[in-house]
Amino acid sequence: MQIEQTTTPEETWALANKLLTNNTLSPGTVIALHGDLGAGKTCFVQGLAIALKINEPITSPTYTLVCTYQGTHPLYHLDLYRLSGPEEVLGLGLEEYFQPNAIITIEWAERAKGLLPADLLHIDIKVDEENGIRTFTIYKEN
Predict the structure, then answer these.
(1) pTM confidence score
(2) Residue 133: helix, strand or coil by DSSP?
(3) Would the pLDDT of 109 be above 80?
(4) Which positions ≥6 away from 118 have C-beta within 8 Å?
(5) For residue 4, which of 42, 40, 51, 56 has the smallest C-alpha distance?
(6) What ranges do the domains of the chain cover?
(7) What is the distance of C-alpha 112 from the center of its chain?
(8) Could you count the other beta carbons within 10 Å of the beta carbon of residue 88?
(9) For the domain 2-140, what is the CATH superfamily, name and number?
(10) Per-residue pLDDT tens digits for 8-36
(11) How far apart are CA 139 and CA 119, in angstroms?
(12) pLDDT in tens, 36-59
């Protein structure tokens, strides 16, 4: 388990870059992003996009569910917020996004419980509203 803290979007972007450059994240990694609305899940994905040299704006795919970006490696950004649970997620065809050369990020991944790879990397983001510190807890279940 790894714990990191950030206070600005730039620090969150730098954290994503650090995880990519130290091989915590690598092509084939599926990342489950957990946190309340506004915690910084999409901001973290923006940092990955910068590190992957993706030159288009990264926004939350809440209404489109999946956004695909091409950089040094493909980046799939999924947002399951609008789905009620695994039954609805099944229709997305998640497995087609689990590519060995891509990084896959899934916001609200708990809604796909039982459908995600066993070696999933979890990133829990908690925000301390008083001081604006975001705490990232990074772990694998197995």
Answers:
(1) 0.91
(2) strand
(3) yes
(4) 141, 142
(5) 40
(6) 2-140
(7) 14
(8) 13
(9) P-loop containing nucleotide triphosphate hydrolases (3.40.50.300)
(10) 999 999 999 999 988 888 899 999 999 99
(11) 10
(12) 988 999 999 999 999 999 999 888
